Amino acid sequence: MLTFKGGVHAPHRKQDTRNKAVEYMQAPKMVSIPLQQHIGVACQPLVKAGDAVKLGQKIGEARGFVGAPVHASVSGVVKAIKQVPHPSMGSGLAVIIENDGKDEFDDSIKPGDIGSMDAEQLKELILEAGIVGMGGAAFPTHVKLSPPKDKSIDTVILNGAECEPYLTADHRLMLEASHDVVDGLKVIMKVLGVERAYIAIEDNKPDAVQVMADAVKSVQGVEVKRLKTKYPQGAEKQLIYVVTGRQVPSGGLPMDVGVIVCNVGTSAAIARAIKTGMPLIERIVTVTGSGVAEPKNLMVRIGTSFMDAIQACGGFVGQPAKVISGGPMMGIGQYSLDVPVIKGTSGIVVLTREEAEVPEAEPCIRCAKCVEACPMRLVPLLISAYALKEDYDNSEKFHAMDCIECGCCSYTCPAKRPLVQSIRVAKRMITARRRRAAR
Ligand code: SF4
Ligand code: SF4
């Protein structure tokens, strides 16, 4: 079985939703669509309070190459453009739309034919549809599909590992829409001019492995790879290593070893946008955790509040202690239930007090468990110790910037040291310092 060194075997906790088909959630009365849902600069709003908008209408234009436009996920009237809570940035500007319940399509929505378009047209459509990485990173996909001329790409990997505990959105997508995943992959291969691709899936999803293998049987150059179930199997560098044997160098990118990695959700979103003409206005979100009455996989309009999505799953059970956007390992704890679902929201996990409680940190006992668990082969205890002393020079010397923030070190530490948290701070400080130096 294909795997990598390090990592942890966290309980999967996927049983509550893995066998539940995706349900369409009714569009809410009000959506709040952030102008920044991607890595890059926030969009320029194209509408103002009082404007009528239609479903799929572009309401925010990308500023610069690294950006992705945003679109209305309901038809209705713009009530305001204002600061709202944001699931990854704390807060940000958003277009608030009151839903008229009509779902009237914008005139720009026109179904397309993948086969009749050339690579440039496909890439332009991916940009215009506002497609970003749906695995959580939210990197604009048209940028990923535009590697510099000196980088020769020969392999595409579709990431269907979904190694985060609790989440099953990608699993259900592969089972229920394998044709969209494969059609999107064909588009990615065409845009990049690549003839070899893999769809990588952890072996705790044997049904998805089978369905995807059947779906690519007649597609030349595409193979399904079954991976050992281990966190963080879906991290880009680990995935590339297990699938191709290539190692992304320190500070490097997948394209440095000739590979582009896309999430299966991104691939399906590309296919749907081209086939239906509808930009990215909805996504599958796993709403789960022992604090949710009826965990589900929901197809949710972008801009739906976490509270509305949780209500669609029967609301809370008892008093929730922690609400996470994404999975419990790399996800982000939320301070408000008004945060909207954005393009990168793969899950909403509600933990009870018992699950969310983190014991007090104790002194390091030098057991080296964090070193064994680190998939990047770092020495987390040292990087963290320097970070806690605000000695960022030494954190950097011990390769803090290579940390992928997977959380394996913190998860495995018997002393419950705040390892990933302190390393994350060190990375931010080092990045800020580099930016200042560059200026
Ligand atoms: S140091 Fe970073 S990469 Fe290594 S286990 Fe900790 S969070 Fe993951
Ligand atoms: S796992 Fe925790 S206690 Fe063990 S060496 Fe690492 S930081 Fe120290």
Entry summary:
By secondary structure, the protein is an alpha/beta fold.
Secondary structure layout:
Elements lengths: L22 E2 L5 E5 L9 E2 L6 E2 L4 E4 L8 E2 L4 E11 L3 E10 L19 H10 L12 H4 L10 E5 L9 H8 L1 H15 L3 E7 L3 H10 L6 E6 L8 H9 L14 E5 H13 L5 E7 L7 E6 L4 H6 L10 E4 L6 E2 L13 E5 L1 H4 L12 H5 L6 H9 L3 H6 L10 H5 L6 H20 L1
Parallel strand pairs: 1-14, 9-10, 9-12, 10-11, 13-17
Antiparallel strand pairs: 2-8, 3-5, 4-7, 5-6, 7-8, 13-14, 15-16, 15-17
Helix pairs in contact: 1-4, 3-5, 4-7, 11-14
Bound molecules: iron/sulfur cluster (2 copies).
Overall description:
It contains 14 helices and 17 strands. It is an alpha/beta fold. Strand 15 and strand 16 form a beta hairpin. The chain has two domains: 282 residues, NADH-ubiquinone oxidoreductase 51kDa subunit (Rossmann fold), CATH 3.40.50; 70 residues, no CATH class. The longest helix has 20 residues. Helix 1 crosses helix 4 and helix 3 runs parallel beside helix 5. Bound molecules: iron/sulfur cluster (SF4) (2 copies).
